[in-house]
Amino acid sequence: MHTLSRRIDSLPPLSLYVHVPWCVRKCPYCDFNSHGVGHGADLPEAHYLSALRQDLDADLPLVGGRELTSIFIGGGTPSLMSANFYAALFEVLASRLPLASDIEVTLEANPGTLERGRFQGYRAAGINRLSLGVQSFQDAQLQALGRIHSGADAITAMDEARHAGFDNINIDLMHGLPGQTPALAVADLERALSLAPEHLSWYQLTLEPNTEFHSRPPVLPEEEVLWDIQDRGHERLEAAGFMRYEISAYARQGLQSRHNLNYWRFGDYLGIGAGAHGKLSVVHGQDGLHIERRWKARQPEAYLRRCQDPRGFVAGRAEVDEDELPLEFAMNALRLVEGVSMADWVAHTGRPAATLEARLLAARKKGLLVEDGQRLQASPQGLLFLNELLVMIGEADAGAE
């Protein structure tokens, strides 16, 4: 492994990701680490809380008491767990790490798993941002996606969240669904906008390996229809006052997801829970700064058994090789509409801007980059063809000496 010399003045912000692996039913498009348990399952909350505590404690020496700026609880379906579970978890966190006074704490919630009154408990526990996995308001589309909620359930969930005091809510919507027309896609957006969320995640359905949809693919809209959906959707969201700040993320002014911005700006994050991933900048004495990625045991039962295992919870770890660092950084930074300054590129990768010059020129000629020598910023065309742009950036760096 190459040693990464320290190129930044201070360590980046630190976030925490907590993974809850259980859901009622695995959706046919889902490639996340989620495990269906059916309705009314008695989840091992106490055992899982104990495991999360031990998992966190094992990682603490890597962060040296750094402040947490955000927490994101994802899944699976985190709203299957009780408010008491989260209140106890936050007590554990607060006793071990300083929390920013304005910390953002996001919980993913499925409208089909929420009991009346549960939102009040989540808000009282310390959760201050919700991400509702709506995907569509059309019942036929929801059934095609294997979702367990209806469009009416989603509207009810949003209403109850507001009554519980949540004033920062994201709605997750998908487009390019089986049989979806541009009119149906825009109708979903219109219904979402009528609920006045602060944030919208609007992304295209993709057929991922190791999913039911991949092995038995549904009939999806033709490419021309997909382009029409995207164009009309972007136009409608901008007209409604939502700023696109990442490929598939839109927010009202000042209400971008701080947690996800930290990912895309190459910040650090701890990952605890079954299958959770983390990325940390670690200083090894005179060796300088290393970037380490680590991931935890994936299967819930295997993860829980690690409580008694001297190996701990880490299933694997890897240091980011110096030659891989530019592409790793670009894969995150170029998702942002604002891109990244060339100064930040140099600081995080250690590579002079001149090593990219020829490929940047080629990318600009293809219309994939904004014409700004001080920034590495994808154009609207570059955001649509980001993989092509990343290949150009990666090839440029790999061949530069």
Automatic annotation (TrEMBL):
<dbReference type="Pfam" id="PF06969">
    <property type="entry name" value="HemN_C"/>
</dbReference>
<comment type="function">
    <text>Probably acts as a heme chaperone, transferring heme to an unknown acceptor. Binds one molecule of heme per monomer, possibly covalently. Binds 1 [4Fe-4S] cluster. The cluster is coordinated with 3 cysteines and an exchangeable S-adenosyl-L-methionine.</text>
</comment>
<dbReference type="InterPro" id="IPR013785">
    <property type="entry name" value="Aldolase_TIM"/>
</dbReference>
<dbReference type="GO" id="GO:0005737">
    <property type="term" value="C:cytoplasm"/>
</dbReference>
<keyword id="KW-0949">S-adenosyl-L-methionine</keyword>
<keyword id="KW-0143">Chaperone</keyword>
<keyword id="KW-0004">4Fe-4S</keyword>
<keyword id="KW-0349">Heme</keyword>
<dbReference type="GO" id="GO:0046872">
    <property type="term" value="F:metal ion binding"/>
</dbReference>
<dbReference type="InterPro" id="IPR006638">
    <property type="entry name" value="Elp3/MiaA/NifB-like_rSAM"/>
</dbReference>
<dbReference type="Pfam" id="PF04055">
    <property type="entry name" value="Radical_SAM"/>
</dbReference>
<dbReference type="InterPro" id="IPR058240">
    <property type="entry name" value="rSAM_sf"/>
</dbReference>
<dbReference type="GO" id="GO:0004109">
    <property type="term" value="F:coproporphyrinogen oxidase activity"/>
</dbReference>
<dbReference type="GO" id="GO:0051539">
    <property type="term" value="F:4 iron, 4 sulfur cluster binding"/>
</dbReference>
<feature type="domain" description="Radical SAM core">
    <location>
        <begin position="8"/>
        <end position="246"/>
    </location>
</feature>
<protein>
    <recommendedName>
        <fullName>Heme chaperone HemW</fullName>
    </recommendedName>
</protein>
<keyword id="KW-0479">Metal-binding</keyword>
<dbReference type="GO" id="GO:0006779">
    <property type="term" value="P:porphyrin-containing compound biosynthetic process"/>
</dbReference>
<keyword id="KW-0408">Iron</keyword>
<comment type="similarity">
    <text>Belongs to the anaerobic coproporphyrinogen-III oxidase family. HemW subfamily.</text>
</comment>
<dbReference type="InterPro" id="IPR004559">
    <property type="entry name" value="HemW-like"/>
</dbReference>
<dbReference type="InterPro" id="IPR010723">
    <property type="entry name" value="HemN_C"/>
</dbReference>
<keyword id="KW-0963">Cytoplasm</keyword>
<dbReference type="InterPro" id="IPR034505">
    <property type="entry name" value="Coproporphyrinogen-III_oxidase"/>
</dbReference>
<keyword id="KW-0411">Iron-sulfur</keyword>
<dbReference type="InterPro" id="IPR007197">
    <property type="entry name" value="rSAM"/>
</dbReference>
